[in-house]
Amino acid sequence: MASFSGYNPQSHSPSPSAPPMPNPQAPSSSQPHYSQPPHWHGSSYGHSSFPPGTHPDVIRSFQMVDRDRSGYIDEIELQQALSSGYQRFSLRTIRLLMFLFKNPSSPLGIGPNEFAALWSCLGQWRAIFERFDRDRSGKIDSMELKDALYSLGYAVPPSVLQVLISKYDDRSGRRVELNFDSFVECGMIVKGLTEKFKEKDPRYTGSATLTYDAFLSMIIPFLVA
Ligand SMILES: [Ca+2]
């Protein structure tokens, strides 16, 4: 028996209340643009082309790193494609993103559809990051993280939040603050694991019964991504 009451059953389909608006201006080279509506996973897999309406910046980022033109990119190439300017992603976060967005039936890596879905999802997280960085420190502290997750429908208990944020403590004595990379990682872990849990708790009671096998299968990909 595993128990978890951290999510708000009233809000079982979390999405930001204000998704990032498409940028009608000409793309600048300094910042990535996220022009697709938010998705968790791409709506279709297995296509070797981008969904209609994909922002040219997204296509350009993909093609720049897909040097062998295979139509798929690996984790290092994904890191290069996403890490531009202000936004660098650790390999750990990249692996987690690969796990969450990769088409399970495709061993080759991330294709255009998944890349476009991932890109728009990151735009969504970027908007959340900026909205909840209330003191404009450029980072998210534990209170800001709590509020950000709550806005998405995840009422993470303080004790759990403490465990989560302590993973990012650099032991300098300063209070822990998350950069965008770590914020995305935290958010993906909470969202991903909550959704896995909900599959075992379809009536949103906050409790689920699951086998040892199911428990490990649920957790391990998030630990060793
Ligand atoms: Ca802040």
Note the main sheet: 2 strands, antiparallel
Helix run count: 8
Strand order of the largest sheet: 1-4
Q: List the domain count as a whole number.
A: 1
Low-confidence stretches: 1-5, 9-47
Sequence of secondary-structure elements = EHHHHEHHEHEH
Radius of gyration: 18 Å
Task: Measure the end-to-end span.
Answer: 25 Å
The fraction of residues in strands falls at: under 5%
Give the CA-based shape. Answer: globular
Overall strand count: 4
Biased composition (Low complexity): 26-41
GO molecular function: calcium ion binding
Pfam family, one: EF-hand_6
Domain EF-hand: 53-88, 120-155
SSE blueprint and pairings:
Elements: E1 2-3, H1 56-65, H2 75-82, H3 91-101, H4 112-132, E2 140-141, H5 142-151, H6 158-166, E3 177-178, H7 180-200, E4 207-208, H8 212-223
Bound molecules: calcium ion (CA).
Pfam families: EF-hand_6
Biased composition (Low complexity): 26-41
Organism: Vitis vinifera (Grape)
Verbal overview:
This protein has 225 residues and is mainly α. The protein has one domain: Orthogonal Bundle (Recoverin, domain 1). It is built from 8 helices and 4 strands. It has a two-stranded antiparallel ribbon with strand order 1-4. It has a two-stranded antiparallel ribbon with strand order 2-3. Helix 4 packs across helix 7 (180-200). Residues 1-5 and 9-47 have low confidence and may be disordered. The structure holds calcium ion. Residues 133, 135, 137, 139-141, 144 line the site of calcium ion. Calcium ion (CA) binds at residues 133, 135, 137, 139-141, 144. Residues 16-25 have a biased composition (Pro residues).
